[in-house]
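Section 4.2 – Deliverable D4.2 (structural model, holo form)

The reporting period included a commitment to supply a predicted holo structure for the target in complex with nicotinamide-adenine-dinucleotide. Inputs used:
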Amino acid sequence: MRAMAVQTSPPEKAPGTGSPEYPPARHFIAGEWVDPVSGQKVATIDPATEEAHGELARGGPEDVDRAAAAAARALEDPAWRDLPPARRARILWRLAELVDARRQDLALLETRDTGKTLFDSSRIEIPLVAEIFRYFAGWCTKLEGGVVPLPGQALGLTLRTPVGVCGLITPWNFPMLLAAWKVAPALACGNTVVLKPSEQTSLTSLWMAALGAEAGLPPGVLNVVTGSGSEVGAALAAHPGVHKISFTGSTEVGRGIQRQAADTLKRVTLELGGKSPNIVFADADRKAAVRGALTGIFYNKGEVCAAGSRLLVERTIYDEFLEQLAAAASRMRVGPPAEEGVRVGPVCNEAQYRSVLEAIEEGRRSGARLVFGGRSLREDLGGRGWYIEPTIFAEVDPDSRLAQEEIFGPVLAVLPFEDEEDALRLAHHTRYGLAAAVWTRDLDRALGFVQRLRAGTIWVNAYNLYDPALPFGGFGDSGFGRDLGRAALDAYTEFRSVWIQRG
Ligand code: NAD
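Output (structure tokens):
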């Protein structure tokens, strides 16, 4: 079945080759562009050309100190602390409008930094960034506490108050979007922020801070320090002036962050990796399920924490489904991400490219059957760009690395199952619990899975759909705490309890 070739396209001048405006290679601290204490800059690389396309400040612990101090001052500044919630809401709403107005530029920067298609960045992600700010703008005026019955003539109140200075650390797969997941609720709840984006994809986060200032955020409310995880991220996680860390990234780094944050008893939210099961029953709408399986794993080149990287298919339709899947995968165009019609761009960086190819090699050696793909397309596409074919393995051993480890690339492991119990057993045969999906026309069965699957997000007859109002987070090694929705308010507020004694 491997015979079908992926459609490729030569690298050519594409619609996305205009010149977006780049942010300065500086941190954004206390409302200003600030040089790093080190005086050093580092390049940011375009995975489609393998060339530097911009520069970033190389931050370190002293820069984190400056940003944390600015955030602490801003927390006590009446210009922010006493700002009426409705005014805070207006600033967030205005920030959303500025993001919309700069959509094309921001999308282009995101595509150059990550290799994601311009279609996805300009039509889906940047608009969603604006939606998230609008959604949380709405919460500013609704952060209500409660009235609690107390003995005698006393009256009890609970008041929601900001947690304080929030250190937000984000990965490279959805740079501005995941920053918005954290920055918007943190600000809506009245906190101040030091944001540390991935050193590979910091450009749009820097713009987020500058647009925030333009929208009216007082200086120091939203700071961005760029640099590596070991130099900036670790300093932020250990900083005594930071009250909360919200981290999205790999499980391994997440564990270390929790350890570091323990010394200063920071509150911690961890959004980590996954190996999510996408379960297809024989009675499912076949066309929709094939499409769902493909989007589940190949959307954003598989660099999605919730990717449906384990496809579980009912035995009776297994062979037929695999054929349909391979045929559909062969129609996905791989190529320069700014080109019209391209569905799969290059993976985000060289290390990732090597690690995905190595996982594919190990998959071959493990005895799994390669149904489609499995090759680098770098040479086919002009010798530059970290391109990898969408890859599908069948008959994957449930205990093998292909079925257990997060590959974080366009590699799908397909496993057959016999019945509902078998599907559930396989679905749970992992240390993660981020997302899952079930494809069936049987409502009763779907509800059974919804009630029993141990996963933070469960889709029924859908995959990879997100909404600002629906909380997102994981179980097990996928972390804890929730971003988005009303649940995010709990992550960024603390209750104060008040006892009012009469008589
Ligand atoms: P990563 O863990 O390597 O890095 C994430 C962030 O942490 C980056 O900003 C990095 O600089 C920083 N960092 C690295 N080492 C650090 C340290 N010692 N101390 C503090 N900060 C440090 O992850 P990545 O490679 O950027 O992203 C891919 C991973 O992110 C995947 O595992 C993916 O599943 C996960 N992810 C999870 C979600 C989710 O919501 N659960 C969403 C997207 C990505």
